[in-house]
Design a protein that fits this description.
Length: 609
């Protein structure tokens, strides 16, 4: 490796650990910020609920003071009046700056002389408003509400929308008879100022008051009061109206903006509802600010840390990136690379580069061997051989065996030079082997001009037989194209015979411990060879055994050729010709000038009579 300064990776890792510490600090900061956020939410939830509850108590106290006043003014009027004194008004009422007017209604069971009393406070009469007429109109509006007051319930209503004039009506039971039945009720018409005082401030939290029907009684937006706006569909109001619980808090989405909100409601003794709500963005504000500042500080610290680490890490990352690039080169098949030319550091990465080069040499040798195996056995067989230990032995498998032979090859060899014969064979084999490989077959061996190929080794596929027949038909077409080319070059065209059979055979390494080959042996192989020989007798380029036809019948255009007596077989073989394929129910003939020829006698096969 050579002498030089040794800079161990452990020192570099110490530097990287500084960054890790910064990351841990970031996580701690994140957790702390989340804890602060949780505490902020908990505190705001408590504040929001307490605000709604305390304001509801204030409203109850204010309403009770109004109830006391209305009771006093109402009873004073009933005591002092008779049929001839309907315009007398208590002095205290005239000096009360909160009342616009008062109405007393007595039902039929009442013993009062006067069934209806209406008084107004002239001192509070606004300009351009006739209070006497206005309160009379209010009385008509309240007729449908009187029944509830006779049932003993205190009612509070916003009547502002009647004349676009801010006024609240408070209805109370006034007089009971000896049976405990309410015989008179009183309605006080009040200024909204004191009620509005607790709700008028505009800040991050919104407070408002609605009656038991969802109409606004007090609100920071005074237009809602003047319109007596019905907001019963507001999520928190809707929940309060449908719920018998006095105090409750919930999260909800604002109707128009879809903003996340925290809301609470508290009911008063008059069934009016105090609502307190605040946007979640306001609640999260302080925690977000804390997070932002902490992240800024940590980001600054991390930036400095990363910058310093970057300066020190170049001696580590740069050579590793170079090794990665070389790894990609090797993956593409380029083994002529040397890592030590690029990585010259005297540390563990330098040792890794030396080991990398040693590995590359081994891979180069392995790839060379694999390429040689591929040429002799085919890719799939080579992969199987390299995967396991190569040893003698075989396994019984169902295989599809193919044999082909060139017609008149002996005569061709006698009439041509060896170079011409080899050139013809190589050109022919190049075309045929490509088709076999493309269709999933494995070329087992070349026997002079013959080709032996197998489907089903080393691994069988469900459609092996179909692929084998398709390969034969493709070879028929390819031979015709090859012959056209040969004729154009004034060369002799080629005719072949092909035989296909499927059956059981032994597949594996056969030979001795010093010399072995991967092949298949068995009756299926011999039968396929005899079927190929029979093509001479039937004058065709392709014959299938009955075992193959049983599987592929209906997918190819098949015709029975006849029976043949072949060497090594007691019983005659039933053989079939193939004229084409059947695709989607449509027959497609595949025929060439070389797919049939004049029948000839053959020593190994004779047509059965």
């Amino acid at each position: 490796m050579g002498k030089g300064f040794y800079f161990p990776i452990v020192i570099k890792l110490v530097i990287l650990s500084t960054v890790m510490l910064a990351v841990v600090t970031l996580i701690v900061s994140f957790k702390s910020s989340n804890l602060f956020e949780t505490m902020s939410i908990d505190r705001e939830e408590a504040t929001n609920l307490n605000t709604a509850d305390s304001i509801s108590v204030e409203v109850d106290n204010l309403i009770q003071s109004y109830v006391d006043k209305i009771t006093f003014y109402g009873l004073e009027n009933l005591k002092s009046r008779d049929d001839h004194d309907l315009k007398t008004t208590p002095l205290a009422f005239n000096n009360d700056l909160e009342f616009y007017g008062l109405i007393i209604n007595s039902n039929e069971q009442s013993t009062e002389k006067v069934k209806y009393i209406q008084i107004i406070n002239k001192k509070n009469e606004p300009k351009n408003i006739n209070l006497d007429l206005l309160i009379s109109n209010f009385a008509d509006e309240l007729k449908t509400k009187n029944g509830q007051s006779y049932d003993g319930k205190v009612q509070i209503l916003n009547l502002s929308s009647v004349k676009n004039f801010a006024v609240v009506a408070l209805g109370i039971p006034l007089v009971k008879n000896e049976l405990g039945q309410i015989t008179s009720i009183a309605w006080g018409f009040l200024k909204i100022d004191r009620l509005q005082r607790s709700f008028s401030s505009k800040n991050e939290r919104t407070l408002f008051l609605v009656d038991k029907e969802g109409r606004v009684l007090a609100h920071p937006n005074e237009n809602f009061i003047l319109q007596a706006k019905n907001i019963s569909l507001h999520p928190i109001v809707k929940d309060a109206l449908a719920n018998n619980i006095r105090v409750k808090q919930k999260y909800f989405d604002a109707l128009k903006t879809n903003e996340k909100m925290l809301g609470a409601f508290a009911k008063t003794s008059t069934d009016s509802i105090v609502v307190s709500e605040i946007p979640m963005s306001v609640i999260y504000g302080p925690s977000l600010l804390v997070k932002k500042n902490s992240y800024f500080i940590l980001g600054l610290a991390l930036s400095i840390s990363f910058f310093l680490t970057f300066l020190f890490s170049q001696s580590l990352t740069s050579p590793i990136e170079k090794l990665l690039g070389l790894t990609k080169e090797i993956a593409l098949g380029n083994f002529d690379v040397t890592a030590r030319d690029f990585v010259k550091s005297h540390d563990e990465v330098g040792f890794l580069a030396i080991a990398f080069d040693e590995m590359t040499v081994g891979l180069k040798e392995r790839d060379k061997i694999k390429n040689l195996f591929n040429k002799f056995h085919g890719t799939s067989v080579t992969e199987e051989l390299l995967k396991d230990e190569i040893k003698l032995g075989g396994k019984k498998k169902t295989v599809t065996v193919f044999f082909s032979d060139i017609r008149g090859f002996t005569d061709f060899s006698e009439g041509h030079t060896p170079e011409e014969v080899v050139s013809m064979l190589n050109e022919y084999f190049e075309v045929m082997v490509h088709i076999i490989n493309k269709n999933g077959g494995v070329v087992d061996k070349f026997i002079g001009d013959a080709i032996m190929a197998i489907w089903g080794v080393p691994h069988a596929q469900e459609d092996d037989i179909f692929k084998a027949v398709n390969a034969c038909l493709e070879m028929r077409v390819a031979l015709n194209e090859l012959n056209i080319s040969r004729i154009e070059r004034e060369l002799t065209p080629i005719k072949i015979g092909m035989g296909l059979h499927t059956g059981e055979a032994i597949s594996g390494q056969i030979g001795s411990s010093e010399r072995m080959e991967f092949t298949v042996i068995g009756d299926a192989v011999n039968t396929a060879s005899r079927i190929e020989s029979s093509t001479k007798s039937f004058g065709t380029d392709l014959l299938l055994s009955s075992a193959v036809v049983e599987v592929v019948d209906g997918h190819f255009i098949i015709e029975k050729a006849g029976e043949a007596k072949v060497q090594g077989k007691v019983e005659a073989l039933v053989l079939y010709k193939v004229h084409g394929v059947i695709e989607d129910g449509i027959e497609r003939i595949i025929k060439t000038p070389y797919s049939s020829y004049e029948a000839q006698e053959d020593k190994k096969s004779k047509v059965a009579a």
